[in-house]
Write a structure and sequence with these properties.
Layout: H1 2-11, H2 13-17, H3 20-27, H4 29-67, H5 78-101, H6 109-127, H7 132-154, H8 162-178, H9 187-213, H10 217-240, H11 242-245, H12 251-279, H13 298-306, H14 314-323, H15 326-329
Helix pairs in contact: 1-12, 3-12, 4-9, 4-10, 5-8, 5-9, 6-7
Length: about 325
């Protein structure tokens, strides 16, 4: 019993002096440790997954920005402006074709023919010496009508589509001022830019929808806080068990060895109490203080007196008997 009690005090002093809560932690160490590690693993997984989702989205947004860097200064509304410009250009081409397909109108052609007829009549009359004055008049009138008709014929009659064309041209000029960096580009270039703007806008809408489902900055901070809390709890758990861990012991195994030794010591103490009650009529811890007049001990007192030993109680007598050698007994 004494050896076990000594072992408890020396080798298992940590548990001997610990409270019931600490002992329970040692006993349940594997389960508690696994629970805290699982909690940390789950927190890290959630935080990492959320961070990866956000990082992936940011990478796609940056890639989109690089892909359409030349259109960075053009808003999505530029698509409507290009559409408007292309529509006016189409209208302009249609009106131009209509004007070019109209029959040519010669307003002075009749006067020229009449002038030519009068001139011919005057020339014939002059050549035949008939009515010279009349011939001169006819020649003069013919020449005048011919020249006047020719001058009128040089003037082009405006097309009925010209006012519409003028309006479209004015609208094109106005739109061109709003096109900014796109002004002056060919129709094919504008059409290609329009398609790229549409593709960019569609991709931006897709990324915006995904961004709505992404964890917010507050949620990311919350996930990081959970990871930090789980790390702290696991660190505190390990720190609390350092008195055992620094011995190179596994807390649960250490606890169970202590518990078995504790039970053995309790069983021995119970057996000792039974014997003490049987032979001394007292508890084991009271035996040492018993008088040497107790049954069986007067002879020990007499022997001690012979050896010039003055013993006061059973405890002292027992200690003295333990010092005797075989020679002393002989």
């Amino acid at each position: 019993l004494a050896s076990r009690q000594e072992e408890l005090k020396s080798n298992y002093r940590v548990l001997e002096e610990a409270d019931a809560d600490f002992r329970a932690v040692c006993r349940d160490y594997p389960g508690l440790k696994a629970k805290l590690e699982q909690q940390l693993t789950e927190a890290c997984s959630i935080e990492r997954q959320a961070a990866d989702q956000v990082a992936e989205l940011q990478a796609e947004q940056e890639n989109l920005a690089r892909q359409y860097a030349d259109l960075a200064d053009l808003p999505e509304s530029a698509i409507e402006l290009i559409d408007e410009y292309l529509a006016r250009e189409t209208e302009k081409q249609a009106l131009t074709e209509k004007i070019h397909s109209e029959p040519v109108s010669r307003p002075g052609q009749g006067l020229m023919i009449a002038g030519l007829g009068l001139t011919v009549a005057g020339a014939v009359g002059w050549g035949m010496d008939l009515y010279l004055i009349l011939s001169l008049v006819l020649l003069g009138a013919g020449l005048f009508l011919g020249i006047y008709g020719w001058m009128i014929g040089r003037r082009k009659v405006p097309s009925q589509y010209q006012p519409q064309l003028d309006r479209v041209m004015a609208e094109l000029a106005e739109i061109n001022t709003r096109l900014g960096q796109l002004a002056g580009r060919s129709l094919s270039e504008l059409a290609a830019t329009r398609e790229r703007l549409k593709s960019r806008a569609e991709r931006q809408r897709e990324l915006s929808k995904r961004a709505e489902k992404m964890p917010s900055a507050a949620q990311l901070n919350q996930y990081r806080a959970r990871v930090a809390a789980a790390e702290s709890q696991l660190a505190d758990f390990r720190q609390r068990l350092q008195p055992i861990l620094r011995l190179g012991e596994e807390p649960a195994a250490f606890y169970h060895r202590w518990y078995r030794l504790k039970e053995q010591a309790a069983d021995l103490a119970e057996q000792l109490d039974t014997l003490a009650q049987k032979y001394f009529g007292a508890k084991s811890e009271q035996i040492d203080a018993l008088s040497l007049a107790t049954e069986g001990w007067p002879e020990v007192k007499l022997l001690a007196t012979v050896q010039e030993q003055h013993l006061e109680n059973v405890g002292a007598a027992a200690a003295w008997l333990a010092t005797l050698t075989d020679d002393d007994w002989q």
